[in-house]
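Subject: Protein record for review, amino acid sequence with backbone structure tokens
Category: Structural biology, sequence-to-fold work with a learned token vocabulary.
Format: Residues in single-letter code; tokens as whole numbers, each standing for a residue.
Body of memo: The sequence and its backbone structure tokens, given next.
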Amino acid sequence: VVIRRTAFELRKARDRAHVLCGLAVAVSNVDEVVATIRASADAPAAREALMTRAWPAEEILPFIKLIDDPTHTANEDGTYNLSEIQARAILELRLQRLTQLGVKEVTDELEELAGKIKEYLAILASRERIMQIIRDELQECKDLFAVPRRTEIVDWSGDMEDEDLIEREDMVVTVTQGGYIKRTALADFRAQKRGGKGISGGSLKEDDVVTTLFVANTHTQLLFFTTDGMVYKLKTWRLPQGSRTSKGKAIVNILPIPTGVSIAAIMPVDRDEKDWNDLQIMFATSAGTVRRNRLSDFTNVMRNGKIAMKFEEGEDTTLINARICSDDDDIMLVTNSGRAIRFPTTDVRVFNSRASQGVRGIKLTGDDTIVSMSVIRHFNAEADERTAYLKMRRAMAGLADDAEVEDEEAPAGDISPERYAEMSAAENLILTITAGGSGKLSSSHDYPVRGRGGMGVTAMDKAMRGGEIVASFPVEMDDQIMLATSKGQSIRVPVDGISFRSRSAGGVRVFNTGKGEEVVSVAWIADQGDEDDDAATDGE
């Protein structure tokens, strides 16, 4: 700052000295200057005449050298040509002012400027002078403004945490079978119409597949349930953030998960932990068993995890899913072979133990396994009411009434408009997706409420032309879903583009899977905001 200020003052002093040299030439040759100006036709001509003439300048030669302007020096014969700036300064003076100026008056000011210029040059040439100026100015500031400190600087003991600095933002959390996890901003995924080829959802290893996708806020508490029955707790913002095509970070570097164990379910919980005692959680295993606990059983989860369900060593049973539920809900289990059972949550008592595997939810045969567990609204309706409602529902959806009626179902009866409206308000739309990329929407009233432990009812066409079922859960018409395949492709599709059909019917194409490619994960995305309705159906 001192150097810059000194250089500025030096330039200003030299500019003023340059003008004064021109004025000194004018007062020394006042008669010739006046005659030259009067002989000129106009101001530009006078300025040009003053600049082209060589004026005697013996008295001001030392000042001209002090200015040190290499572009405007004195002539070898001791004369001096005025610059345009000097000529303009002479012309701007009134004649009365010009004649009253004396050489001494001008040279006195020049000598004063010469002293300043020499001082500025000396400062710029000496580091010691510059540092001394800095010390003097700082001491002056201290003398003028030094007062006792009015604030006390102490170590802050506030309660702000890293989380308070994290912006609230919706994230897509992705988990792969190989154990990689990441969070990506929801805005990085654009919507496509059903039947598209999708966009790349991750740069995966050749033998890795995406197994879990869901949307959560950065401040949402996440409960990680592993296939071996352990639970871990983490906030969404603590997950590694990556781009849509990045691989993510190995989950074993984030959570202490043993080798060979994978994530079975990740449950986002937006409620404060002090309210968790009012919530219940339902577990389901691959063996068809279910168990209900209070969510408060999982508030005190240390970094090394906590037992959520205890399995015997060597047992092939794994944890499939975990969902929050209430006494007014129903639980629906769906198998890979296309069977589904629906029963009230109250059919399963609240367990105090976290080690038990629970009670039977559905009876499995052969190699059947549970692939999905959903929590839906409970509603009591007679068999004939449900049949009548579904017949009218399919008619309103423009479908032929070709649904298969199982032996235990009653024939369709009459249903009043009031009853139809009541059942419509209590209806859940059940989305079912198969490995081949087929999907459909069906009514929750199409799945009868029965006691737990039975064989269930048909959830897909008996021929299973779309492949085994990979997911089945309730959605709303304004929701969107995200599907991921075994080759790392993903697609985001609005639910209202998927056809409504009966539970025993086949689905429509939702994802155009390639050869050797299967859908392995389906995520529900709600509250999407504005989307581009004209998004192309062809993938990137």
In short: DSSP finds ten helices and 26 strands in the chain. The longest strand covers residues 210-217.
